[in-house]
Amino acid sequence: MSKTIPPARTFISFDWAMKRLFKQKSNHDILEGFLSELFKFDVRVTVILDSESIAEKKDDKTNRVDLLCKNEHDELIIIEVQYFRETDYFQRMLFGASKLVLEYLDKKLPYGKIKKIYSVHIVYFNLGLGKDYVYRGRQQFTGIHQNDTLKLGRAQRRRFGGTVPADLYPEYYIINISRFVGPIKDSLDEWIYYFKHSKLPKSYQAKGLGEVDKQLKLDLMNPELHKEYMHKLKEYGISEKTLLDYWDDGEAEGEHRGFLKGLIKGKAEGIAEGKAEGKAEGIAEGMEVGRETGARIQLEATVLRMHRHGMSLEGISEIMGIEGAEVEAILKKLTV
């Protein structure tokens, strides 16, 4: 059974709007409002770029971003929305920004022409350990002996702007939706509330949310686009239900035992290896093997349950962030 869409969901989700609607100039105010509240300075989007341009092949989801745009200073902005856990997501963030540096620097140009990159990630799972729900990451150089912060020289400031190397390097933002529980404290929280609930707060002052109210209402969509959108929500609803009730039946309990078995086995092998070689790191490595084994068991079980709920292979591939060939391989392995 698929999960029905709550009546309170009256607005188009932000990730859908990024992929299908923000290429229209009339919708740039929405994107600009969110980015302005996040960065704490006014942002004007000048062009939405083809996000497929940094994909090496069509089904290479690791290389594809949800939205790529430029601001009035010719700086690049990546925005990605991720619903499901990826243990290597930090490396994925690094890869995306690094690939943009290479894509948008003509090999004949000097390094000074490298564009500033803002990499924004809206995630619906706990990424790392921390108490906050919004994190900003910048490159900083600190003296080992004097503990001072390295700054740009006068010629560098005149030529490139900014005061520290971080002003030139990629800058990362992580918004962890699952950690946001309220209350709403500021205008950025108003945006995060919309991300989490697909509805607006009772009152708001955040830039761009007024345009959301005017332009991203479900009842304003044309019939064909509305049908496509509701189908996608149905698939997301199925996947959400699959994750929520994953641990609630006997089959899941068995899979959970498999997860624990993998973890314990990995830990035991690591201890044995550590003793044999006299290296304590064997224990840590073994535990990591166990975690990876357990995570794989969870992923395969979730794919199987999505399939049994009637979700398409394409839908499973998109939602789980894995290629279609891997989905087919998992189903072939588990349904023989």
How many DSSP H or I helices? 11
Tell me the major beta sheet. 6 strands, mixed
Helix content: 40-55%
> How much strand?
5-15%
What letter string, H or E per element, gives the SSE order? HHEEEHEEHEHHHHHHH
The coarse overall form would be globular
What's the domain count?
Answer: 2
What spatial order of strands do you see in the largest sheet?
A: 1-2-3-4-6-5
| Termini gap | 24 Å
Spans where pLDDT lies below 50 across 5 or more residues: 1-8, 53-63, 242-253
* Estimated structural class: alpha/beta
What gyration radius follows from the Cα positions, in whole Å?
A: 23 Å
Look at the structure and give the mean pLDDT. Answer: 78
Total strands: 6
Describe this structure in words.
A 6-stranded mixed beta sheet has the order 1-2-3-4-6-5, sandwiched between helices. The protein folds into 2 domains: 14-222, no CATH class; 245-334. Helix content is 46%, strand content 10%. Mean pLDDT is 78; it is low at 1-8, 53-63 and 242-253. It has helices at residues 14-20, 28-39, 89-103, 154-160, 187-197, 209-215, 223-244, 250-277, 281-308, 313-320, 324-334, and strands spanning 45-49, 67-71, 76-82, 117-123, 134-137, 171-176. Strand 3, helix 3 and strand 4 (117-123) form a beta-alpha-beta unit. The longest helix is centred in the C-terminal third of the chain and has 28 residues, at 250-277. The protein is globular, with a radius of gyration of 23 Å. It has 336 residues and is α/β, with parallel strands linked by helices. The protein is built from 11 helices and 6 strands.
